[in-house]
Amino acid sequence: MTVDLTIVIPAYNEERRLAPTLEAIRAYLDKAANTAGAAEAADAGAQPPQWELIVVDDGSTDRTADIAAEAAAADPRIQLLRGGRNRGKGHALRQGVLASYGRRVLVTDADLAAPIEELEALEKALADGHAAAVGSRARPGATIGVHQHRLRELLGRGGNFLIRTVAVPGIRDTQCGFKLFDGDRARAAFAASRLTGWGIDVEILHHFDRQGWPVAEVPVRWSHQEGSKVRPADYVRVLAEVTSLKTRAVRRTDLLVAGLFLAFATVLYSARWISPDHRYLPHSLQDQNQWEWFFEVTAHNIGHLQNPLFTHLQNAPDGVNLMANTVMLGLSVPLAPVTWLFGPAVSLNLAMTGGLAATAFAWYWLIVRRLVRHRGAAALGAALAAFAPPMISHAHAHPNFIVLFMIPLIVDRALRLCEGRHVVRDGVVLGLFATYQIFLGEEPLLLAAMGMLLFTVAYAVVRRDVARAAWRPLARGTAIALTVCIPLIAFPLWWQFFGPQSYKSVLHGDNAGNSPLALLSFSERSLAGDAETASSLSMNPTEQNAFYGWPLIALALLIVVWLWRSAVVKALAFTAVAAAFLSLGPKFRIPLTDVVLSGPWALLADRPLFESVIESRVAMVCAPALGMLVALAVGELAARGAEGRPKWGRPFRYVGLAAVTAALLPLLPLPLKAVDRADVPAFIADGTWRSYVDTAAGETLVPVPLPDPAYAEALHWQTTADLGFRLPGGYFNGPWGPDRVGIYGASPRNTSNLLRDVRNSGRTVRITDAWRNAARVDLRYWNAGVLVLAPQAGDAALRSTVDDLLGQRAKWVDGVWIWDVHGGG
Fold first, then answer.
1. Consecutive H or E run containing 108
2. What residue ranges in 642-782 does DSSP mark as E strands?
3. At residue 76, does pLDDT exceed 70?
4. pLDDT by residue (tens digit) across 583-601?
5. What pTM did the predictor assign?
6. How far is residue 762's CA from residue 749's CA, in Å, rounded to a whole number?
7. For 822, which DSSP code?
8. Contact 566, 635 (CB under 8 A)
9. Distances (CA, A) of 426 to 217, 430, 473
10. Which residue among 35, 73, 103, 561 has the highest number of C-beta atoms inside a 10 angstrom radius?
11. Residue 818 backbone phi and psi in degrees, to 5
């Protein structure tokens, strides 16, 4: 006879509670069976539902086993399984479920804290199509008769929050001991389980979640029963078991992909990893000095409990608004201990190497989750998204444009909002994700939002049914995200836009857009690249923002034609084309002609936020779009030739994979070039400067010429000296003029302009009394203690000019020329 229901009760030293529990369950089930039998009496051969009850003794040392044995002797539907020594609730439940025959399996605790009458509500959920129904004390409608101790409740809530976050999203109460399962799926899940303790509940629900078996959380009546076996330390054990569970659930393929991405990023930066403190990326121009300074100043501010949004160490006496600069507090703050121990060069290297690998894996995770289940196809698409030519270009100098691991997470959370299942939770998480990304990089977030908007519009046009169903939860979730995000970022953004040394916008000059030829050519660091061609089509080596190469563009076109029936392909194609078109700027010239046309960027160029964007960077949106198109195509090709496919499927697959290889191979990035770094003068490195700069009086060390975006080696001096002195000038974004327009570097002064011109020309300037008076004013403004000239090209002209300007001859001290000007000369 078919067993309709199996009830499994794990029991350890339950002699006082087990007998009443068994009697209550048997009475309820017999009554239910009699009621069902009477209702079906008119049906010939109908049988009332049959049940079995399995008590698993988990090595009890009292009369628990004897009580269960007596009940089994009185009713053959009750069984006793002896577990030997005490091994935990998980082991006992596994033995009981695997010994069951029921079409449905109920697991309940021996204390029957949730009355057996609550089974009816769980059965209704299974009848509605769910594979499992779990009793919940946290869902609206649940009734708590007798509460646990307050501390136990708080531990339970905190533990459940962590469990939901790590392993079982969406289930508020995983530990309530009253759960009903589809029998076959329960036996499959428990057969695959490994935990022996209290974490078994989480492991089983995690298994159901991974298999896609729907689980309902049903509010129940529940009352705490004295004699609970759960101790405070057990909460820690459950979390440890859950962590172990999550670790074991990671696929080896995913670990391999993550390892490959990390290895690839390490090889890319291998020339710097040889000796981070003494190697420099020449294509970074002066950005490496700037970024190391950013990491150092953040660690300094944290260590000295100073404002992380501002500093006077650069651009003295005015200072630098760090929030208005790309200081990346989201990384420079957590990496502060690394900076303290190993220096900013190691922190920057770690951020860029690890951040690039993490970005690739985040795209891989998103593609596997949303687009392609084939791991190889997803890895290839993610590699293109993270290691595309524009990403490699920015890898020289701009960690804020390569550390983008939050962007795929933000995209996924927005897609979850469209599903409308957990709008409040997903909206809150989206708000937190966006907040963190703001502290990693605001411009990449703006570009990502543009890409998401382009995709959304295109997808809504081709799938209006999906758009109609998704827009309400998406709008509501976005409002929740803004409600979470805005209070968290309100003060930092106020400081950025209205605080000291804030500015309106940064001017990048004309011709900041891509040439159409740049989209078809190869970047300098690509396998097929040409430095001369790439240089002629870009602003500088760090801004080669397109350069996808004509083979990849041709491949993308073939993929779109081949898979045109897919709405996702249409939306991705529109996103890539629109982003490429926007990246051409407000005006662009048709190659090989004198025809100049207006571009769509003209509509955005003067708008707030957009006015500071280098428009050629919009082409970076194409990288993940193209990566996803390639992943979709490779996933489809991988299925060709499988059983049930046409015989010509395999040849087509080989041809297609060869085409993908031919398109991507020329884009293979080469390791970044690195050169030996200029030594820091002994005057700085050995601390000799301390005899010439009265830091207590706020005096500054004035490099000759002053540091600026073209030559910022003095920032490296400053980090080597642990930021012991302040500098005038520098490399940062700050205001200029009454309109507070953003410029690179400090507001120009007469003396700084003079020294810069002498450096650039290599020729001395005839010094007049007007120049000398201006120099005295500037030195007082900077509160200069000493001027320092390190050996460099054209240093003779600089030394002669400063000698004449100050009316004193320079002294050679520890490898530099100095002019002692205490008090400003």
1. strand 104-108
2. 675-676, 700-703, 733-736, 741-744
3. yes
4. 999 998 888 888 899 989 9
5. 0.82
6. 20
7. G
8. no
9. 18, 6, 10
10. 103
11. -130, 155
